[in-house]
Each structure stands twice: as C-alpha cells, then as structure tokens.
Amino acid sequence: MKRKRLRRIAVWLLLSIGLALIGALVVVDQYGYINRAQPADVIIVLGSQVRPGGQPGTSLARRAAHAASLYQQGYADYVLCSGGVGDYPPSEARAACGRVMALGVPPEAIVYEEQAHSTEENAAFSAAIMRARGWRSAVLATDGFHLFRAAWMFQRAGVTVYPSPAQITAGPMTTVERLGREVREVFGLALYGAKVMLNIDETRLR
User: Fold this and answer.
1) pTM of the model
2) pLDDT for the residue 11
3) I need a surface site. Which of 35, 93, 122, 153 has the fewest CB within 10 A?
4) If we measure between CA atoms, which residue out of 142, 140, 144, 141 comes closest to residue 175?
C-alpha cells in the first residue's frame, strides 16, 4: 500500500514537472515573437559565440545586425555591446560592435562591456555602465528564444528594458534550431529561478 502511494506521488510529481516545463517552453516561444522596442537611452547587444579568426558567429551577427537596424531607426543614440572573450578572441563585445560599425553605426555611438561571460553578467555589468552614464532604459537586441530570460535578468539589475528579437531583422530561425534553443532556455530559466530563490548572485562568485 505504501509503495503504491509513493508510486502515485512520483507519477504526479513527474507530470507536474513535465507540465511546468511545457508551460515554460510555450512562454519562452511566444515571448520571443513580440517586438517591444521603444525609444531608450541605449541599445544593448548581448554577446554570443565568436568564430576562429575573430568573426562573429551566426547568432552574434544577427544580434549585431538587429542592433544596427534599431539604431538607424532612431531608437537610441548609443549601442552597448556586451560580452567578454570566449573560446576565441576578440571579446564578443568587440566582434559585435565591429559588425555594428560596418553596418553604419558611428564609432562615437559605441560603448563596450568586455567582462561578461553569461547573460546574468551581461545584465549586471551593462547596468553598472548605464548607471555611471545616467542611463535608465535599454532596447535589448538578442535572439527571440533568449529574450524572456534576458529581460528578466536586466529588470532585476534595475534596467527599464524593451526586448526586441533579432529575427525581425535577420528572419526566422528553422523550427528545429529554434525549438532546440528554447528547450535549453527553459532549463536556463529554471536554474536562474532557483538562484533567485536562493539569493545567489553569480557576479559575486567570480
């Protein structure tokens, strides 16, 4: 009798976790389709992989292209590129802003944040730069699948954030690629939620 009860509890627990993950996947997916860009103090490009030779990877290139488009549309007077050095130099910030400038954004409009190695650090270190310059609001240029978690982190860092998916400029991802990235995001979201509940600040652990 006791075993049956434990089995039922385990089944219900697994079902609950499964439903929660599916629900989170739907939220991440739907959130990433909506452009919430508004005029702001700065446009922030979130870092991603840099290829051997220093060229931005596919994801970073489309984020940079979207940031340049937002700048040209007049959403902000500055573009802040955030991201440290990963597997290959230069920093993600340098690679992104190199592409942004190649697309017509003047060097004097560029700001670099080259310490971050995670989205949480992107938010914390970018927010510090914003405070130093008296900026409060930012248009967030990143991939749609990344927007929900990134926006949450920037809001917690004290930034008024307007998320804008890079796919508006670059076009949609394939369904397989998008879903694969979204599944990873759901687990990233769960991990960050746990860190928030446990009051763990990643930037203080470095």
Assistant:
1) 0.86
2) 67
3) 35
4) 144
